[in-house]
């Protein structure tokens, strides 16, 4: 006799196979009857069948669904979107019991799916392997719980915490394998943020170059009063949208390509910018620098995770630190270590707020 946790773990593993689900959560589902597996499904991509429907399609004999049990990592939806409500279809299929990993924090669901099932005679159990299920969709859960994007600060640095020498030449610390990992990291985020200095001096593309994405991350320049006309790749390459947050009338009136969008105010702060990104339905933000911008996010208390690629080099002297400003600091920020791995020539450390 297999336990509910056993079957939910299978659903969790399937959910993690979800590809570019974009603004949808990754979800896995398992259908069981008399302690025997009928089918497995998951949400493959944005706009595709939800996990429950995918599992339904994989059932060889649909009559077997009557009286079966569905295990699903996230509460079944109850609203009409790109697909019909899963909770309604579950009732139609004749499933009599649904085991749910976590409640859906999205206001369109938020218990409504479970209530629909209960009101139509379906037994529901919630909270099975809940913590693990929540970890499948960290950004999605954070976005709908806190009403702002999940924010990660990312940097490559030396052993002594430096990101570059104090020269006009760009320094590349990580090797190809570590850079490949950064590309994969970018693919998981819906916005990539840089400051004006990084946009102009490095002229980055901020794209994912090792895979094709149907919904590439929005590239965000926090420009302040800086002239960003030299950021050619971000302004001219339409491989992804570019948002420009500026306080400059010159930049506001600048002719930009159709993939660019200018947000002008005479004064922006980071909280206001994150609010705009929230209003644009952007659930996750990767801040790639530079050092002053990283420190500004730290000072504004607007970060949830830090990812550092640390290479076995020492810069010393007046080299540029990963966090840089003149503000006086009297209190440390304590982090929880989530993982430590070797990636190429770097040690990748992922920490999250306590």
UniProtKB/TrEMBL annotation:
Entry keyword annotation includes Transmembrane: no
Cofactor note: Binds 1 zinc ion.
Cross-referenced InterPro entries: CMP_dCMP_dom, Cytidine_deaminase-like, DHFR-like_dom_sf, Eubact_RibD, RibDG_C, Riboflavin_Biosynth_HTPR
Active site positions: 52 (proton donor)
Molecular function in Gene Ontology: 5-amino-6-(5-phosphoribosylamino)uracil reductase activity; diaminohydroxyphosphoribosylaminopyrimidine deaminase activity; metal ion binding
Pathway assignment: Cofactor biosynthesis; riboflavin biosynthesis; 5-amino-6-(D-ribitylamino)uracil from GTP: step 2/4; Cofactor biosynthesis; riboflavin biosynthesis; 5-amino-6-(D-ribitylamino)uracil from GTP: step 3/4
GO BP: any one term: riboflavin biosynthetic process
EC number of this enzyme: 3.5.4.26, 1.1.1.193
Amino-acid positions noted as binding NADP(+) in the UniProt annotation, renumbered to this chain: 198, 202, 290-296
Keywords on record: Hydrolase, Metal-binding, Multifunctional enzyme, NADP, Oxidoreductase, Riboflavin biosynthesis, Zinc
Amino-acid positions noted as binding substrate in the UniProt annotation, renumbered to this chain: 186, 206, 209, 288
Reaction(s) the record says it catalyses: 2,5-diamino-6-hydroxy-4-(5-phosphoribosylamino)-pyrimidine + H2O + H(+) = 5-amino-6-(5-phospho-D-ribosylamino)uracil + NH4(+); 5-amino-6-(5-phospho-D-ribitylamino)uracil + NADP(+) = 5-amino-6-(5-phospho-D-ribosylamino)uracil + NADPH + H(+)
Names of required cofactors: Zn(2+)
Residues that hold Zn(2+) according to the record: 50, 77, 86
A Pfam match: RibD_C
Family: In the C-terminal section; belongs to the HTP reductase family. In the N-terminal section; belongs to the cytidine and deoxycytidylate deaminase family.
Task performed by this protein: Converts 2,5-diamino-6-(ribosylamino)-4(3h)-pyrimidinone 5'-phosphate into 5-amino-6-(ribosylamino)-2,4(1h,3h)-pyrimidinedione 5'-phosphate.
Protein name per its UniProtKB record: Riboflavin biosynthesis protein RibD
């Amino acid at each position: 006799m297999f336990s509910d946790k056993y079957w939910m773990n299978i659903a969790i593993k399937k959910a993690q196979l979800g590809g570019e689900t974009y603004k949808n959560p990754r979800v896995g589902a398992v259908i069981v009857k008399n302690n025997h597996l009928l089918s497995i499904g998951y949400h493959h991509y944005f706009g595709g069948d939800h996990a429950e429907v995918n599992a339904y399609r994989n059932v060889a004999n649909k009559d077997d669904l009557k009286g079966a049990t569905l295990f699903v990592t996230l509460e079944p939806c109850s609203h009409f979107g790109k697909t019909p409500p899963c909770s309604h279809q579950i009732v139609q299929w004749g499933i009599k019991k649904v085991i749910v990993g976590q409640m859906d924090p999205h206001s369109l669901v938020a218990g409504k799916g479970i209530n629909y099932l209960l009101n139509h005679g379906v037994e529901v159990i919630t909270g099975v392997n809940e913590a693990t299920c929540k970890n499948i969709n960290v950004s999605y859960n954070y976005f709908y719980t806190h009403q702002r994007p999940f924010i990660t600060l990312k940097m490559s640095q030396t052993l002594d915490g430096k990101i570059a020498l104090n020269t006009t030449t760009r320094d590349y610390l990580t090797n190809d394998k570590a850079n490949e990992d950064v590309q994969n990291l970018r693919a998981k985020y819906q916005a990539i943020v840089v400051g004006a200095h990084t946009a102009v001096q490095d002229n980055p593309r901020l794209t994912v170059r090792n895979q094709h994405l149907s919904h590439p991350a929005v590239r965000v320049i926090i420009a302040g009063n800086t002239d960003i006309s030299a950021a050619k790749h971000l302004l001219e390459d339409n491989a992804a949208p570019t948002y420009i947050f500026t306080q400059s009338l010159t930049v506001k009136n600048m002719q930009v390509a159709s993939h660019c969008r200018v947000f002008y105010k005479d004064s922006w702060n980071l909280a206001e910018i994150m609010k705009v990104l929230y209003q644009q339905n952007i659930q996750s933000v990767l801040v790639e620098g530079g050092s002053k911008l990283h420190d500004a996010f730290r000072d504004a208390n607007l970060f949830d995770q830090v990812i550092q690629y640390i290479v076995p080099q020492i810069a010393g002297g007046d080299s540029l630190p990963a966090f840089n400003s003149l503000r006086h600091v009297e209190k440390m920020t304590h982090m929880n270590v989530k993982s430590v791995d070797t990636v190429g020539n770097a040690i990748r450390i992922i920490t999250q707020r306590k």
